[in-house]
From TrEMBL, chains A, B:
EC number: 3.1.21.10
Sequence similarity: Belongs to the RecU family.
Cofactor(s), by name: Mg(2+)
Gene: recU
Catalytic activity entry: Endonucleolytic cleavage at a junction such as a reciprocal single-stranded crossover between two homologous DNA duplexes (Holliday junction)
Cofactor info, note text: Binds 1 Mg(2+) ion per subunit.
GO aspect biological process, one term: DNA repair
Taxonomy of the source species: Bacteria, Bacillati, Bacillota, Erysipelotrichia, Erysipelotrichales
Broad class of the protein's primary localization: cytoplasm
Any single Gene Ontology cellular-component annotation: cytoplasm
Keyword vocabulary terms for this entry: Cytoplasm, DNA damage, DNA recombination, DNA repair, Endonuclease, Hydrolase, Magnesium, Metal-binding, Nuclease
Binding residues for Mg(2+): T78, D80, E93, Q112
Protein name (database record): Holliday junction resolvase RecU
């Protein structure tokens, strides 16, 4: 049987009502709402980066009104989220999967892997937030743990038992539907 | 006569050729090129955030090809640049002015001021890069110096002599047309 040494499953018994009421909310909107809450309560300044778009043509139907009429999505060169918490540079990517047993590494793009490696080298707190939508379980897994796994395993996915053991379950709290900062706090405390 | 105690004008005598050859390059493209160079040489990971755009309608003229046909510019809620250098969270905004004597504070938007104040509180290295295009002079001015000036003066602009004294001129180096990291190094050294 799998053990959960960090008590990471303690919210597995959260009231069913809380789960169903938020059904359909995406991880992205949960994280955005969480970051907004962190900003309002002055805990951290962490933002989602806008999607990069190449604008080709803009119309001006009225003065001071710009309407983009031709544009294309560009490839990002970083992760989606970064910012500052307790003086530390924070950088992460968020991914959802319907899979119930593994996280397919194909969901992580090469530029995201490269960027996470790069910021890690410079001293960032870098991680992935992975939500298993079918299980309604969300985990924070540090980038260095993922890179260590990748370098020692030939698998093209992260098994859920490994994520449960190495990662930490992200709790849903009143103001923060994806309250990941307490997990960072734990790490900062351990590193003191 | 104005003194330059930090020797910040030492590149005022840079070869004329270097100036004219790069005429027409914007501050933004200079900074992007600089950040790319920092990334290539593994000095720092600092990126410009994409412009936030609200996509309303997307056409699919071919499979796997998305063409945005209706979209609008949104207001940003942060500065344009952030990243990590030597373990520190870096955050800045870049502004150009044709003015030869002052930097008009109106060029700095309220959300940029709010964001800079906010990240400063959390321990960021936050600053403005200001280019006086008519003079071909570029300065790095730390956000806390600007906030101190704003709180003690009623002026709606930063005078160039004050910027020359409090800020530091940003040099153009071979790989980095707006080589601002050495100025940060100086600050990190002083804080040790």
């Amino acid at each position: 049987m799998i053990q959960y040494p960090n008590g990471t499953r303690k919210n597995a018994s959260r009231p069913q009502q809380a789960n169903t009421s938020r059904r359909g909310m995406t991880l992205e909107s949960d994280i955005n709402q969480t970051n907004e809450s962190y900003l309002i309560y002055n805990k951290a300044v962490i933002h989602k980066k806008p999607t990069p778009i190449q604008v080709v043509h803009v119309d001006y139907p009225a003065r001071n009104k710009a309407k983009i009429v031709e544009a294309y999505y560009r490839h990002a060169s970083t992760t989606d989220y970064n910012g500052i918490y307790k003086g530390k540079y924070i950088d992460f990517e968020a991914k959802e999967t319907k899979n119930r047993t593994i996280f397919p590494l194909a969901l992580l793009h090469q530029h995201q892997i490269d960027h996470l490696r790069s910021v890690l080298q410079h001293g960032a707190i870098a991680f992935l937030i992975i939500r298993f939508t079918s299980l309604n379980e969300t985990y924070l897994v540090y980038a260095q743990d993922i890179f260590e796994y990748i370098s020692t395993h030939k698998s093209k996915s992260l098994p859920l038992p490994w994520i449960r053991e190495i990662g930490t379950m992200v709790e849903e709290t009143y103001h923060a539907p994806c309250d990941y900062l307490p997990i960072i706090d734990q790490r900062l405390k351990e590193n003191l």
